[in-house]
Structures are given as C-alpha cells and as structure tokens.
Amino acid sequence: MDRLPALGTDIKAVLSPTMQIYTELLQQNAPAIHSVSKERETHQYGQHPRQNLDLYKPKENSANSPVILWAHGGGLVAGDKNLPIPGDLVYSNAGYFFASRGFTAVVINYRLVNTHDAKFPSGGEDIAAAIEWITEHFQGQKRDLFGLGNSAGGIHWSTFLFHPAFQSTLNKVTIGDGVRLRGVTLLSVPFDFSKAAPDRADVLHSYYGDDLAQKCPYGLMYLADDSVWESLERGKVQIHVGSVTLDPEDEILSPVRCFISTWRNKRSSSPAPGLVVSTWGGHNHISPFLALGTDIAREESWGNDLVEWMRGEIEGSAN
C-alpha cells in the first residue's frame, strides 16, 4: 500500500504496477488461499458460455452461511473471475477472504463489450441471471444475500437495481423467507460518464448506444420508477456506496459525490432504502480486491469493514 501513491491515480497507468505489487504479496499467502480455492465449484448460471461463476464455501457452517455475489471490474471490456496470474491467485484470493470469514462467495463472469458483443442492459441481465441461479441453488433455504460490484461490476449491479426490466427478480429477493437481498456495495463506480476519458467513448457507445445520460447508473437511479424504490424499501435493502482515496477524481470521485448528493436530495422526503457511504484510505482503483487474501491487516482493512457492515445488516434483519 505504501507504494501506491507514487503510481498516481490514472487507472490505466496504475494497472500493471499495482498487479505486480500485489502478486508478490499474494504469493506469500498462496497456501492459505489454495486451501479454500481447491474446493471451489464452477457452475453455469446462464446459456452464454461467459455466464459462469465460481462458488467458494466456508469450511464451517456453510449450510446457512450468508452469500455474497461479486462482479469484477474491467472497463466493460476486460476482467475475469480467474486472471492469468501465476498460481491461480486472482481472484481466488477474494473467494478465500470471504469464505474464511463465514460467507459463501459467488464470483461471476459477465459478458464483455466487443468480446461477447455485450449491449446495455446485458450487465443487469447477467446479475439477474446469477441471482436467479442462487435462488434455485439454495432453494428452500433461508440465506442472506449481499451484492458487491466494483467499477464496471458496480455499473451492472446498478443496472439490475434501478432498471425496470429486472423488477421481478428484485421482488423475488425482497419478499419471502428464502434468499433475501440485504445490501449492495457499489465500490469505485463511474456513476456517470460526463468526465470520462476521451478514449472510453467508443466502448461506451458500443455498450450503451444513444441516451448515455439516461442509461448510466446515475441516470437510472434518478429516473427509477417508484415501484423500484418500494421494492428496495420493502426489503430494507441497504445501498453502500464506497470509494478509495486514490481513485481518479474526474472518472470516479466526482461522479460518486454527485450520485450521493442527488440520491439524498431526491429521496429526502420519500420512502427509500438506506444509503451508506464509505471512503477507504490508501488504495487505488485497482488494489482493493488484490489486497484481499494477503492476510495483511492494513491491506485488508476495507474488506474487514465491509464484512462487519454485512454482519451488522444480518443481525439487524433478525431483530
């Protein structure tokens, strides 16, 4: 973490050196990570070959463990649940981290722009399909479900939450006694693209087409139908917006502040799910999930905070 500030905040510039820094740290804890990852299961959650997931189970009490569904980042065009890092460490490190803290971790792949011809709202479709798989896989069981998406993964979680096309799946996990959605963490998400780097224009147009301002996470939240808010409120679903201090200002931090401000202004006098805001120091846009599984307290502090928040939501829902 101490080496990150010198790298700057530009996402593309920090990517390679950050990966190198954390590969070295994760290799030092490889035996512990592999003790969990060797038991992981891989499943298809949809018909497209890209719609697959890895399932990491805690070693104890897995029968009633809470479930966390994570969608990785990658700028809509890249990323994978298993990156080509020596030793099969990324992102089995994240599966290890959450499983070792009593969560069943579901780490998904989703369709990408160009490679899989992903078009809006395919990211929301993939999240919805993964949730449907979870409800079927744990059918008849009471399970607390948490969503987690960073960067592009957070875009797709936002699409699922606020786009009317996914209302039926949202209702399924906010009503009843089976799998219940308790909260969603949106970490370092570009909620709008008004200040996006010019070289992202082609990808954004390829995915979103026209009406980018209405289809981006900010636009979807702003235009969300009352029925969406009612579903979230009925389920007492908490929306947890997070960022890190070395996120880029124009692409991430400014849109995050705007999203939070507009949410608070728009929902101040109306029923709405709770909004929780967190900022973690020391990390850049790439490092948070690479830091999980290092077993280094400073590196993993953001993840431990997240786990404590989720445990608090579980306890609160039981009262």
From TrEMBL:
GO molecular function: hydrolase activity
Protein's name in the database: BD-FAE-like domain-containing protein
Organism (species): Fusarium oxysporum (Fusarium vascular wilt)
SUPFAM superfamilies in alphabetical order: alpha/beta-Hydrolases
Taxonomy, superkingdom: Eukaryota
Keywords: Hydrolase
Pfam families found in the cross-reference section: BD-FAE
Keyword Hydrolase included in the entry's annotation: yes
Stretches assigned to the BD-FAE-like domain: 53-154
Signal peptide: none
InterPro entries with a match to the protein in the record: AB_hydrolase_fold, BD-FAE-like_dom, GDXG_lipolytic_enzyme
